[in-house]
Amino acid sequence: MGGFSVQRAHLQHVEGISKVCTDGYRSTYKESHSKEYIDRINNEFYNFDRISKEITEPGDGWDGWFVALENNEVVGAIGGGMFDQNKGEIYVLYLDPNRRDEGIGTLLLDAFTKVQKEKGATEQWVSVAKGNQKGIPFYEARGFVFHNEQDSFANNHDEQFISNRYRRKV
């Protein structure tokens, strides 16, 4: 699986995390979501200041960012946290869109799952946009099972995007 390493993110990775997440989000949702929606999400969640703070001041329910590196370049990022004593959540997992199918996502998921299991997780959850044919097959292939639908977290009052909730035992 290439010369990748996975580690907890540091401040020198912020730009790489921001780029991987914004490019990955744009690539994933360009066909199903408006440019305005994509730009709003990218500006809110994947900006330099927010990622920097999430690295230096992880809080309750946030285990921080982890990155996949190749030659010190960020090629993927994952983040999440524990939302219950034994339940972990993956809030974000994106790769450089040109680097799919190289095993990077699996390396990130495996490393992050290990962190959550060490914190007591016996279940892991993820929300994936309904119709996301990049994310859904990835998670299902790794044992996640559909649980329910819900309104997407970032919907505005006039938006009706749906997220599929998946879970697996870990």
Description of the molecule:
This protein is an alpha+beta fold and 170 residues long. Helices cover 34% and strands 31% of the residues. It contains 5 helices and 7 strands, in the order βαααβββαβαββ. The chain has helices at 14-29, 35-45, 48-56, 104-118, 135-141; strands at residues 5-8, 65-70, 73-84, 87-95, 123-129, 145-151, 162-169. A 7-stranded mixed β-sheet has the order 1-2-3-4-5-7-6, with helices on both faces. α1 packs antiparallel against α2 and α1 packs across α3. 29% of the residues are buried. The model has no long low-confidence stretch (mean pLDDT 92).
**Could you tell me the mean pLDDT?**
92
What fraction, in percent, of the residue positions are helical? 25-40%
Tell me the radius of gyration. 15 Å
Question: How many helices does DSSP assign?
Answer: 5
Number of strands: 7
Query: Structural class of the helix and strand makeup?
Result: alpha+beta
Tag the structure with descriptive keywords.
5 helices; alpha+beta; 31% strand; single chain; seven-stranded mixed beta sheet
Q: Quick summary of this structure?
A:
This protein is α+β, with helices and mostly antiparallel strands and 170 residues long. 34% of the residues lie in helices and 31% in strands.
Fold topology:
Blueprint: E1 5-8, H1 14-29, H2 35-45, H3 48-56, E2 65-70, E3 73-84, E4 87-95, H4 104-118, E5 123-129, H5 135-141, E6 145-151, E7 162-169
Parallel strand pairs: 4-5
Antiparallel strand pairs: 1-2, 2-3, 3-4, 5-7, 6-7
